[in-house]
Structure formats: C-alpha cells, structure tokens
Amino acid sequence: MKKKLQIFKKKPIKYSFIVIGMILLVVISNLYLQWCQNELSLELVFKFAFSWHTEKFILGSLVLLIFLLFLCSLAGSLILGSVLYAITIGILGFADYQKMFYRTEPIYPDDLKMITEFGLLREMIGTIPFVLILLIAGVGLFFFGKAMYKSRLLPKKIQIIRLSSLVVTIGLLVYVSNFNNPNNLLRKAYDKTALWIPYSQKMNYYNTGFMGGFLYNLKVEAMDKPDNYSKKTIEAITSKYTKTAQEVSGSSEAEQPNIIFVMSESFSDPQNLTGVTVDQNPLKSYDEIAKTTYSGKMLSQNYGGGTANIEFEALTSFSMELFNPQLTTPYTMLIPKMTEIPSIVSLLKNQDYQATAIHPYNTSMYKRKDVYKTLGFDQFISEETMTYKDKLQNNPYISDESAYKEVLDLLEDEDNPQFVHLVTMQTHMPYSDKYTSTDYSSKSQGNKKAIDSYMQDVAYSSEALKEFTTALKDVKRRTLVVFWGDHLPSIYSDEIKADNDEVRMHETEFLMYDNQQKLSDKKNHDALSSPFYFAPTLFDQSNMQMTGFYQLLSELEKQVPAFEKGFYYKDQQWSQTLTLNQVQKELYEDYRLIQYDIVSGENYSLKTDFFN
C-alpha cells in the first residue's frame, strides 16, 4: 500500500515536469522565430514578447503548442515528437532569416511548397549549410518514423490517449488553418490587439509577430467581392470598352507579327542606385537598343525575388495590387484551382499563334509546368529539353545566349506566327565566383565582390540581347519583343538601401523592340510602367487590334501609369496610398471588377468577347 502511494505521488511530479518542459520548449521556439524575424535582435524579441505585444505572443505560443502535441501524438513519443518539433522550428526560423536577409520579405505558408526544390535551395544558402540542414532533417525524420513504427506496441490505455490527442490536435490545426474566416475565434482574439498591415508583409510580421504574420497568410479568397459586382455591371463594363476598342484600334495587319516576351532574371541598372558608382557601364549594349525604341523603367512588386508574380502580371495583365495580401503567389495558390484564365497566351492562341514557354531551369519551379498548361501554351521547353545548353565559365545556369538561340530556332517556322515567352536564368543568384575575372569594378557601400560579379552578369546579358535583336533583323516576319528585368538582385547592403527610396529599390529596365522599327512611340526612352500593362501597351504601340480588356488597361495606364501595393505613380508623382479623381476611380474600379470576376467571381466576362 505504501509503495503504491509513493508511485502515485511521483507521477504528478513527473507529469508536471513534462508539462513545464513542453511549455518552455514552445516559448523558447516562439522567441527563436521572433529573433530570426527581427534580424537577430534579442532586445526587440524580449520587448515584443514581454512588453509590447504579449497577448499576440501568447496566442502564437498556443498554436505552436498544438503543433507540438500533434507531433508527439503522431510519433507516440514525447521525446521524439519534441525533437522533430525543434528541428522543424529551427529550419523554419533559419529560412525566414535567409529570406528576410536576401529579399526583405518573410516566409509565407505557401513558401513551404518550395521544400522539394533542392537544387535552388542549395544555390541560395550554400552547399555546406544545405547539406547540414538536410542531414539533421533526415536523421530527425528517421527516428521519428522509427518511433511511429514502435508506437504500435504501446499499452492500450496509452494508445487511447495518444489517438484521442491526435484527433483533437488535427481538428484544432484544421480550425487554425481557417484563420482568415471572419468567424474564427483565434482570428477574433488576434483582432483585439493586432494592427494588420496588409500593404507591407515585412511590417505585418514585425507588428503581429512571426506567428501572427504567418497565420495571416494562410489560405484566403483571392479578392473580396466588390459591393456592386453583378452580371449586369460586368456586361456594362465589357460592352463599353469593347465598343471603344473597335472604334479606336488600327486595322489588323495582313501578316500577324511574332511576339516575344523576355523576362530577364534580376536584370537592372546598378548605376540607378545612390551609393553604387561604376567604372564603366555594364548596360552599354542594352542602352544602345533602348535609346532607339520605346523603353524606360518598370515597377517591380518585389525586391530580390518574386519572379513568378511579375511573370503572372505580364502574361495575364492582372495586378497583384488588387489581390488580398495573403494571396502571395498566384502560380501556386490561384491558377491550380482554375481550368482557364484569360491571358496574352489564350488571346494569341485564338488567332492561330504557336505558343511556347522557355525556361532554362527545371519544370517544377512555381508549378510552371501545370500553370503553362492552364494558360494555354503549346509546349514548355526547359533545361532538359533545350537544344542549346552552354554556360558561361563557372555560372551554374544556362546562358542567355543559348536561350535566345532556342527562340531563334522557333522563329524559323515562317508559316505560323509565334508567341514565345522566355524566362532567363543566367543572372540568377548567387553572384560571387561565377566568373574567373570581371571587367567591371564598383565603388559601393558593402558587398563589392557580389556587385562587381553581378555587373559582369548583366553585361553578358546585355550583349546577348543585342546579338538577339540584331539576328531578328533577318527574320522576315515582323517580330515584336518585350524585354524586362523582374526585380533587383538581393545584393545591396543596408547602407545602400537606406540611401535609396523604396521606389528605386523596385525599379528595373524594360524596352519594347520592333525588328521593322514601326512602334508608334519609339522616341520615348523614359516611360514608366507596371508589367500588367505590357501586353496592352505592345498592342497599342504596334497598332494591333485591341481587345476590350486591353482598351480598359490602356486608358487606366494613361491615368495611373504604374502601381503596386504601397507604390502608386499618378499625376507625375509617387505616393504610398492611392487617391483617385473621378475618372481615375471609375477606370480602377472597372479593372478591379473584371479581375474579381475572373479570379473569384462568376466569370461573366468570359462569356463575352471582352478578352478576344
């Protein structure tokens, strides 16, 4: 009797230690995530958790506790469940720190889909850290799997507790995943103290904590329904702009031109930034083309990354600015749910074009293989199927010169007009050690080696573009090119960033080229644009038949030439908020209604000729 009493006394003490240990693990892990988010500042971490935003820190810790209990229940082991939890949180925090460092942007839930992109991840973080993380994760998963296998031998009573805990935690995690449902109790608890900052995810995470920001970016409807959305409203909009397009468009040419889109990875002008001085112009070859045709600056949504979002805007002419901020990557979060989406691809396919996408990398990035199929491309040429695969010196990526040769081969088909969409890789990070020597030297505030190597990269890219446009002069069919850089590279120091306003850090180069020199505004070399305007601008510049949708965008561009979340250019000045006069507001609202109709609405506009 005395022995049983001693065991009974010991068990509560043992369980108390377990509970305290799990709570400590959750609190420390939450502090760690916040530390990674706050640029490794312990002062900011402790102020956030225990002074400024304690309520939000506790709520985030509760979610982490549910996740920890889920892993422990799944493994059938408190120890191995906790170990895998610690490894998962450790890798997540490291990834967030890396993304903040390179792109000044936090990790989103949707980024976790990139976990299988081993090649790109290794190149981004370096071989040694990548192998180390892979090794730790592999060992953790091995023992976790072993624990799950052995858990079938646990006593019946323990199994009941374990399975009950597993069901409850799965249910709670599913409930948490619906964080953006207005009736979600966790969201309501956050809303009592949280000031969400949708126009800046970086500040959103800082203000609500890593966990708050992460939860905020869980699944959400692409766009909120506008108050005046209806079939009648959409039909009025489509009729209005389709009629205008028919009245103002030039006559269609007897021969349809080839159209080439070239999205050049990280192509930009380092000389555009204060704090970077160069000994010679790396964009010399590019400038020689730009000064003879319609060209200027493009406003990129992102800094240091976000290629697929810029590509989405350019192909569909839909703006990321109009989406709910939680929809961070349409290629993985939106298009896979759709059977069709209007784009320049579908428009040209209806006009008997052959449509080809070329990306000198693998087909899985951003689900491009599936996305291109939905958009309507006839074929997707990747690094595996390319004819030309030459690389420059130590550069791990296929060169721009090789990519352009691939395009020129397609243009040899003189029977059919071609639409080719090329996404280059030569100038992708990392930038150090690509070339044995560089012809360019910079004076910059930090990271000189990477900047010099980057300048060599864009110089080679510029030269390849010049050779390509020269070769196009021998193509008999009229050929139109839209060339742009998707974003700046993530190589600039905090000092350089501080010396330049945010707009400068989001401006890249663009030009439109006609091998027959017939663009209507080819003397304008200081244009300012956003990528969703490219297709309608090209049609307008080349005197091609405008669609109703492109007519709407063309009129909007005249009023608001460039905009993204937090960056709005109108009336020849930049602002962080969008204030519109009556004409501008009507155009913007018509555009918003059409985009909602396609991505979240009833697709009324698809039943008209608005996009054709």
Note the topology.
Elements: H1 2-37, H2 42-52, H3 54-75, H4 78-103, H5 118-125, H6 127-150, H7 156-177, H8 185-191, H9 201-216, H10 231-248, E1 258-264, E2 276-278, H11 284-290, E3 294-299, H12 307-316, H13 330-333, H14 344-349, E4 354-359, H15 368-375, E5 379-382, H16 400-410, E6 418-423, E7 442-444, H17 448-472, E8 479-485, H18 494-499, E9 507-514, E10 527-529, H19 534-541, H20 548-559, E11 562-564, E12 567-570, E13 573-575, H21 582-599
Parallel strand pairs: 1-6, 1-8, 3-10, 4-5, 4-6
Antiparallel strand pairs: 2-7, 3-9, 8-9, 11-12, 12-13
Tell me briefly what this model is.
The protein is of the alpha/beta class. 50% of the residues lie in helices and 10% in strands.
Structural summary, described in words:
By secondary structure, the chain is of the alpha/beta class. The protein folds into 2 domains: 2-216, no CATH class; 258-545, Alkaline Phosphatase, subunit A (3-Layer(aba) Sandwich), CATH 3.40.720.10. It has helices at residues 2-37, 42-52, 54-75, 78-103, 118-125, 127-150, 156-177, 185-191, 201-216, 231-248, 284-290, 307-316, 330-333, 344-349, 368-375, 400-410, 448-472, 494-499, 534-541, 548-559, 582-599; strands spanning 258-264, 276-278, 294-299, 354-359, 379-382, 418-423, 442-444, 479-485, 507-514, 527-529, 562-564, 567-570, 573-575. The longest helix has 36 residues, at 2-37. The termini are far apart. This is Sulfatase N-terminal domain-containing protein. The chain crosses the membrane at residues 12-33, 53-71, 78-95, 124-148, 160-177. It is found in: Cell membrane. Pathway: Cell wall biogenesis; lipoteichoic acid biosynthesis.
